[in-house]
Design goal:
Layout (H helix, E strand, L loop, with lengths): L1 H31 L4 E6 L6 H10 L5 H9 L9 E10 L2 E8 L4 E5 L2 E5 L5 E5 L8 E3 L3 E3 L7 E2 L2 H14 L6 E6 L5 E5 L2 E6 L4 H15 L4 E4 L10 E4 L4
Parallel strand pairs: 1-3, 4-7, 7-10, 12-13
Antiparallel strand pairs: 2-3, 4-5, 5-6, 8-9, 10-11, 11-12, 13-14
Amino acid sequence: MAKKQKRLRTWVKVVLVAIPVIAGIVCLIVFGFKLNDIHYTSDLNQFTKEEVQAYLDANDFNNSFTLWFRDLIGKEEEIDLFEDYDVSFESITKLKIDAHEKQFKGDIKNDKQYYCFDEDGKLLKIANEKVKDKPIVKGLTIKNANLYQKIKVTEPKQFSAVLQVAKGVSDYDFNVKKIIVNKDLEVTIVVKNVSVMLGTTTNLKKKLSDLNDMSKNLKKLTGTLDMRFVNNEGKYILKKTKKQ
């Protein structure tokens, strides 16, 4: 009986010592590892350090230990700006973030600014200049746009058609300058000096694959390529612009 009481007293002492130690560790993690600064590097350089910091602040990613530990165990916090990323400590309040950024699929000009969106239509950046080598979208009217949320437009089906085309063309090397959508959900893209009428997104993969096969020759031409239909010979119709 005396031995049991002695063991009980020992365990009580252990618990009494452990509780403040555990509480101290928790407090250190919660309050001592407050994320105050980052050192940011990336592959595409689409976002500045300040923009990444603003995203982290806006989404309450304010604990350096949590970000680091979740990355360590392969359970990273989802960050809309990145495909993936690595985190390491520079101090308990400063992290180094090395990221593979999500590629912009295009941008929409709105009030003299360019709204850059990803493949899901989320607004990832508002820029003062057009993003290089990314198509500008025409034919959409923005109803509401908040950073890190999907852009709301007056005709959502138009945006869905644009996103399908934007994702599709990103698989190929030909550079698309513009994506234009009309009220009938027909899409036209501008490649170099040729307007390519894709029509609706029906059979889009085949149309884009065929366009890719023709892209080298298109670079030398000016005009309109109608890919909505094929002629009796199974070919698309190119109407060249007459030289003035």
